[in-house]
């Protein structure tokens, strides 16, 4: 379990080692590492909880054996006071058994206490490493997403300035110029037609004035 943590910590500390380089998606690989670490932490928590429970059980049994030994000694004293040496001996024999059990249980309890403290310390270290790597994982994920975005933008921008795009733009520019030229030509033709119409209308107007002048002269006898 703890070897796994050291392996994963090496992976994260080196940021993107060969394992990540081979992964199709480094972000998914980092997430997988974190899930495995979370599972290991849960297993470690369960082991620590069992060890603590075992320590408490041994401590309880040790106290029970010790109290029973003390009780038998008190009972032996009462038996002696009552003049019943045989009963006192039996009480002392039972006291000896409980004292021996208490001594054995005390040794087991002390070892279980040390083991539980050691496991708890390692668990705390695992959690500290997990939180450290979680922060680094978040930073790596942000960098990976940023790299993907930059790559996408660079590809898009390279496409904008490609020869095909430029040729397409030039074709559209030529069409716009052609449309403008056609519009100017139609405007010139319209202006030309309007000038001819104006001249013809002026000619008709001039003829009307000449006719009126001739009529006036006839009326005045000036012909």
UniProtKB/TrEMBL annotation:
Residues 139-210 are annotated as: Disordered. Keywords: Coiled coil. Residues 139-148, 163-177, 187-197 have a biased composition (Basic and acidic residues). It comes from the Bacteria. InterPro entries: PspA_VIPP1. The keyword Coiled coil applies. Residues 34-75 form a coiled coil. Belongs to the PspA/Vipp/IM30 family. This is PspA/IM30 family protein.
């Amino acid at each position: 379990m703890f070897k796994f943590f050291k392996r994963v910590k090496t992976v994260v500390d080196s940021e993107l080692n060969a394992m990540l380089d081979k992964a199709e998606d480094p972000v998914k690989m980092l997430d997988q590492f974190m899930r495995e670490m979370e599972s290991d932490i849960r297993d470690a928590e369960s082991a620590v909880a069992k060890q603590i429970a075992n320590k408490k059980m041994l401590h309880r049994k040790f106290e029970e054996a010790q109290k029973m030994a003390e009780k038998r000694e008190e009972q032996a004293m009462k038996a002696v006071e009552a003049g019943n040496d045989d009963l006192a001996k039996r009480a002392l024999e039972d006291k000896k058994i409980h004292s021996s059990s208490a001594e054995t249980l005390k040794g087991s309890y002390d070892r279980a206490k040390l083991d539980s403290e050691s496991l708890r310390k390692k668990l705390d270290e695992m959690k500290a490493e997990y939180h450290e790597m979680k922060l680094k994982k978040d930073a790596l994920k942000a960098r990976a997403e940023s790299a993907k975005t930059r790559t996408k933008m660079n590809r898009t921008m390279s496409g904008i300035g490609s020869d095909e795009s430029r040729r397409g733009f030039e074709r559209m520019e030529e069409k716009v110029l052609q449309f403008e030229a056609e519009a100017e030509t139609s405007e010139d033709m319209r202006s030309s037609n309007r000038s001819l119409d104006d001249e013809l209308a002026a000619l008709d107007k001039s003829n009307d004035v000449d006719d009126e002048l001739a009529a006036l002269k006839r009326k005045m006898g000036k012909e």
